């Protein structure tokens, strides 16, 4: 499966962005999906995950209440709605798919990764 992340950009603190991750090559309707991010000089960090049906989600504490992960299996696409953005959210955001189907924050359980989209939040 190929994953294409898009929707990043430059936004002021307090603003919003919606990231999309479009899959091609096969359906991702049985996969769990996740978003990770990596800031300059830092390790990759888990952000959010959603199970195959969309009925279960999990977030890193720093984004709870501000970010929302969702999916549209008919469109083979996953989204990350990011509200109340902060400068510390600045990073390259990556989407990934896990054939396990259940929510997981472990990067090694994701087998396919997108190319990343840059999110920059100015203060």
Task: Describe this protein's structure.
The chain has strands spanning 2-6, 9-12, 17-24, 32-38, 45-50, 57-59, 67-72, 77-82, 91-98, 112-113, 117-122. It has 123 residues and is mainly β. The strands form two sheets. Strands 2, 4, 5, 6, 9, 10 and 11 form a seven-stranded mixed beta sheet that branches. β4 (32-38) and β5 form a beta hairpin.
Short description:
With 123 residues, this protein is mainly beta. It has strands at 2-6, 9-12, 17-24, 32-38, 45-50, 57-59, 67-72, 77-82, 91-98, 112-113, 117-122. A hairpin with a 4-residue loop joins strand 7 (67-72) and strand 8 (77-82).
Q: Low-confidence parts, pLDDT < 50 over ≥5 residues?
A: none
**What proportion strand?**
over 45%
Helical segment count: 0
How many runs of DSSP E, i.e. beta strands? Answer: 11
Write down the overall geometry: globular
**In percent, how helical is the residue content?**
under 10%
Class derived from helix and strand content: mainly beta
Major sheet size, sense and barrel closure: 7 strands, mixed
SSE order, one letter for each helix or strand: EEEEEEEEEEE
Distance between the termini: 37 Å
Task: List the topology elements.
Layout: E1 2-6, E2 9-12, E3 17-24, E4 32-38, E5 45-50, E6 57-59, E7 67-72, E8 77-82, E9 91-98, E10 112-113, E11 117-122
Tags for this entry?
123 residues; 7-stranded mixed β-sheet
């Amino acid at each position: 499966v190929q994953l294409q992340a898009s929707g990043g950009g430059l936004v002021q603190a307090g603003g919003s962005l919606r990231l999309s991750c479009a899959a091609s090559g096969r359906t991702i309707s049985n996969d769990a999906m996740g978003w990770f991010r990596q800031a300059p000089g830092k390790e990759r960090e888990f952000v959010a995950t959603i199970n195959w049906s969309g009925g279960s989600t999990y977030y890193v504490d720093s984004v709870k209440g501000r970010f929302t992960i969702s999916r549209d299996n008919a469109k083979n696409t996953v989204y990350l709605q990011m509200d109340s953005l902060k400068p510390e959210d600045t990073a390259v955001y990556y989407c990934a798919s896990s054939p396990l189907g259940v929510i997981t924050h472990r990067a090694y359980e994701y087998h396919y990764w997108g190319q990343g989209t840059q999110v920059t939040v100015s203060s």
